[in-house]
Design goal:
It is a single chain. The protein is built from 16 helices and eight strands. The protein is of the alpha/beta class. It has two domains: about 180 residues, Rossmann fold (3-Layer(aba) Sandwich); about 140 residues, N-(1-d-carboxylethyl)-l-norvaline Dehydrogenase, domain 2. The longest helix has 23 residues.
Length: about 325
């Protein structure tokens, strides 16, 4: 059996452990809190994040990072994107030097504007052949319930991507391979920002015409930035682009859409942060994605206005009115 270490035991880390266990891997799930690890090992359930989901017998949990990482062939990272650098700096000395590092995170680091694969490379010194990302329409609860889903496994080394594809393939989870790591990461990070905007439209009471318009223009905005960075435009039309965008913007299970809905209903970002332990990555990454777009000379009105709402400089309704008031132009401009 291939040993896979998963850091950490939140919703997505636990859900992906179900995939890994079902695929026949030995899985060690690192949890920050003793009670989480104990529940997983004794009840076969992560009661705090995914209650009611029975975990495969091949999944065990530990709060000892060294135990989780020891002899791991693959290390999967699922912590919030803005905490990756600090956490990985602590874990890096424990990770076997030949282990493949897989990012399930969707964000761009504040300050550095690094994608998660770039943070991993900087902290661990791993080459591109040891760094992969998984991205697609993968809402954690549905994955954990083993509902059919597909995703993209991207690595600069196609052979490594195919190896991971085999390790992640189950009766319910179908991975496709790609070498476009950049495109998958930009698509995965930007869809969270668009999800916030769609959520605000829903919270304001607007219907399908409005949300479809925001989704479509959000995809165009995402593609502009990704292509300016060097991504394959076809990646943005696939699972890691359009697929992930549709799931995030259409599902009430999406943290980012839910966060946006609450903004549309009049709550402030600070009030929403205080009301939940779940992280909406788009609320943190919108500022870094906006900075990356400006650095690339890309027009990014959705990121710009979402960032303004998060900061409290405008309201959700003012954002929607501003979109309509923008100068008209050809759709392909």
């Amino acid at each position: 059996m291939t040993k896979v270490a998963v850091f950490s035991a939140g919703s997505w880390g636990t859900a992906f452990s179900v995939v890994l266990g079902d695929a026949g891997n030995e899985v060690v799930l690192w949890a920050r809190r003793d009670e989480v690890a104990e529940a997983i090992n004794t009840k076969r359930e992560n009661t705090g994040y995914l209650p009611g989901i029975e975990l495969p017998a091949s999944v065990r949990a530990t709060t000892d990072a060294a135990d989780a990482a020891a002899d791991a062939d693959v290390v999967v990272l699922t912590v919030p994107s803005q905490t990756l650098r600090a956490n990985l700096t602590e874990w890096a000395p424990l990770i076997p030097e030949k282990a493949v590092l897989v990012s399930l995170m969707k964000g761009v680091e504040l300050g550095t504007l690094d994608r998660m694969s770039e943070v991993i490379a900087e902290v661990t010194g791993a080459g591109p052949e040891r760094i992969a990302v998984v991205s697609g329409p993968n809402l954690a609860k549905e994955i954990a319930r083993r509902e059919p889903a597909a995703s993209v496994v991207a690595c600069a080394d196609e052979d490594v991507a195919r190896r991971l594809q085999g390790l992640f393939h189950t009766a319910a989870f179908r991975p496709y391979t790609s070498t476009d790591v950049l495109g998958c990461e930009i698509g995965g990070a930007y869809k969270n920002v668009v999800g916030l905007a769609v959520g605000m439209a829903v919270g304001l009471g607007f219907g399908d015409n409005t949300t479809a318009s925001v989704i479509t223009r959000g995809l165009a905005e995402t593609a502009r930035l990704a292509m300016a960075q060097g991504a394959n435009p076809l990646t943005l039309m696939g699972l890691a682009g359009l697929g992930d965008l549709v799931a995030t913007c259409s599902s009430p299970l999406s943290r980012n859409r839910t966060f946006g809905e609450n903004l549309g209903k009049g709550m402030t970002a600070e009030e929403i942060y205080a009301s939940t332990s779940q992280v909406a990555e788009g609320a943190k990454s919108c500022k870094s994605l906006l900075a990356l777009a400006r650095e690339s000379g890309i027009d990014a009105p959705i990121a710009e206005h979402v960032d303004a709402v998060i900061d409290g400089r405008i309201t959700a309704l003012e954002m929607m009115n501003a979109f309509i008031a923008r100068d008209t132009k050809a759709e392909t401009d």
